[in-house]
Amino acid sequence: MKRIARYSAYLLLLVAGCAALGLPQPQTFNEKIAAAYTTVTQVRSVAASLVGVGKLSPDDAQNVQNQATHARDGIELARKAHLTDPKAGAAKLDSVTAILNTLNNYLKARQ
User: Fold this and answer.
1) CA of 11: how far to CAs of 34, 61, 80, 107, in Å?
2) Number of structural domains, the chain?
3) In terms of Cα–Cα distance, which of 13, 44, 39, 29 is closest to 88?
4) d(Cα 75, Cα 40) in Å, to the nearest integer?
5) pLDDT at position 25, please?
6) The pLDDT of residue 107 is above 70
7) Residue 12: which residues within 8 A CB-CB, separation 6 or more?
8) How is the chain split among helix, strand and coil, in percent rounded to 5?
């Protein structure tokens, strides 16, 4: 289990490092949607791994999982809103992305 936690932590740092290195960031709305869904998956995985190695309490991990679920729902709402009002959909996706970034930062601090 420690190996999985370490792998997840490295994956999270790698993703953050890619952004810092100036590697291509998602540009289109659909790319941003895909990146947001990927981040939800990463947040869930890292939270579960941190519980496994005792760096995150089960209650804390459940809170992170609940917030990830809400973020996933927000991504879907943004996608639907974008169909009729692209500006509103993009704004919704931006706010969900900010929440996911906050969750990521919280988990990084726990590693």
Assistant:
1) 17, 18, 30, 12
2) 1
3) 29
4) 10
5) 87
6) yes
7) 42, 46, 104, 107, 108, 111
8) 85, 0, 15
Nearest of 37, 62, 48, 40 to residue 9 by alpha carbon = 48
Radius of gyration of the chain from its Cα atoms, rounded to whole angstroms:
15
Q: What is the per-residue pLDDT across 43-102, written as a single tens digit (0 to 9) for each? A: 999 999 999 999 999 999 999 999 999 999 999 999 999 999 999 999 999 999 999 999
pTM of the model: 0.78
Residue type, 53: V
Residue 70 in tokens: 């809400």
Q: Is 75 exposed, middle or buried (0-12, 13-18, 19+ CB in 10 A)?
A: buried
Tokens encoding 24: 């291509």
